[in-house]
Amino acid sequence: MLLLRLAAQDLLTLNSRRRMVPHLAARWRHFRGADASLSERSAWAESLVHLAEDLVAAGRGNVEMIVECAATLDEADRPGAPRLIDVVLVGHHPEDRRLSVQLVELKRWSMVTRVERATAELVHVPGMGSKKHPARQLREYYEAFTGGRGPLSGLEFECGGFAYLHNATDASAGPLVAVDAPTGSYARVYTSDRRHQLMADLRKHFAEEGGASAAEQLLQNMGLRNTPLLDAMIRSRGEDTVFTLRGRQKKVADQILDTACKVLPDPRRPALVPDERRVVFLVTGGAGTGKSAIGLQIKAELEADSHTVKYASGSRAFNGAIQEHVGYGDREFKETFTYFSNFVTPPDPPVDVLICDEAHRLRERSTNRFWKPEQQGTKPQVDELLDASRLTVFFLDEGQCVRPNEVGTVGLIEDAAQRYGATLLRYELREQFRCGGSDAYIRWVRAVLGVTEGEPAQWTPDGLMHVEVADSPEELERVIRTEALAGASARLVAGYCWPWTKPLGKQRRLETDVRIGDWHRPWNADSDTFCEEGAPPCKIWSVHEKGLDQIGCVYTAQGLEWDWCGVIMGEDMVRRDGQWVFRRGKERKDAETGVKRVAVPGSFDPKVRAGSVDDQEFARLVRHAYHVLMTRATRATVLYSTDEETRSYLKDLVGEVQVHGLRPTWENLPEEARVAHLPRPRRGRRGRTRSRTSIPQPPEPRLF
Description:
The chain is α/β, with parallel strands linked by helices and about 700 residues long. The chain is globular and about 90 Å long. The relative contact order is 0.11.
């Protein structure tokens, strides 16, 4: 958990725009489930600004301030609320450039009358009673950061801490600064009388140059910068440990594995009386909360214990990306990865565990226009999945339903589990790993699109996620291509607002269907094979190097992520008179080429035609589609609307983009974060480790 990460000078800029405290309050409510008190808000407005001003005055305005953070996600496992440190200052040491960290406890106390000297546990503050001694708090923080499980473990670092009583003087806070006060690297106390000493010490601990690279390293070790899903799978090379799960993720995975041990038969020691119990796990969470990471981790561990496991999805793009980018051969992939529709005939015997990723994409029935009548499903698809396994795991996000025939909901799975007499265990994931770990960005997107109620606030830069609005499609493409050529992963995506032409002729030429003025680009290929000039098939468009030349849509982007994502909003969702207006398009056939073009701007998605969904459902699906597209980036989203009024509205919401040049371009990123995505391994079978205890667990490689 953290509320904000910005350099000191940027925090002051944010405060000058009157956006710092509202941002912190919104983050606080998200994590703590309650509004921040007036006292807490006043403390942010006063104490944070004092500290930031002193850093700037000391010539250390580039030192990073991480506000209200826990040492690791594991802090959530402690009884009661996690220990939140007011501020962690991060930068480089001025002498040897090693990581330099200072833990800060900010106090607005103007007077301290007494310290219980026997233990130095409590101090007495007039009007507030007994309070915990700042040195004791800092000692706990120091141990949490530098201990064996802390984010500084194993690193070369300098770490200290101090309490800052900016409203007090040496005389009014005498018991805290007396000769017999606690001493040590984390027990320093500064008052207003000692401001110049504080600034001198800040210069002693931090180099003048920026601390962004140091902050990136710390965020990685705190678990707030996650390895991209496909890269983590490549790194694993089929070994037992695919990911390092954190916080709630680890709890969910451990519960599933423990339940599997109790319910499923041990292949090495068959039970005399088989256990007939059925168990259904339902794990909900928004985009980027780690659902797929949990699924792929438990798949690896259950397979290592000789259980039969199938990993099912409703997305060809997700499965195709895994197979192509991770390097599975066709046979190897088909052994364990499959689709929801492949269980019309249940396996005999049932598989031990069926993992259903993106369960919001479940259909009412398993049907296919190419199947014979006897091959079509006759019962609910969710029932087919339950018939296929003893233990079924569903990962679901109702906010990502983008087709009218997608029926996966919490209620659907609860009803099915009840019909089957299965034990249902529910979990919710809240910690955000996509979009740079910025839940603030996720909430902002949902508010902007009207997925949640209430007027959206102006976007507040939080040091985790970047957003901007382009003035033209040419500018949008230039930004995305620049980042891709520099080494970042990047893609262009768009709302389904143009007809989509299948590859033409023997050359399999892609028509430039997406047309905005003089700017013309093709959709990703509607094909299972490569097309002209090496354009990749649709199922691997998201990971193939040639995919940057085409525009993706929600159906090829869902479930995937890139560093930078350019999103084109079309005429299906435009802003008029303070409201979103949703429009269906009409096509015409070009007289010369016979290719379909736009006659009336709007949606051309064949899945949401007027005959299949009403206006209310149409609006919901369009909102959800843009929600998916706008949450594919891990570092930066660039928006462009083809409608001028909508573009102006988005620009007003995004506000001023440049904050001291902290736009996370590949060149501006610190070296620790500027790691290219891994190349795809050669396809083919890889040796798999079958024992979870026979090899040492490798440390998790980190990219971001």
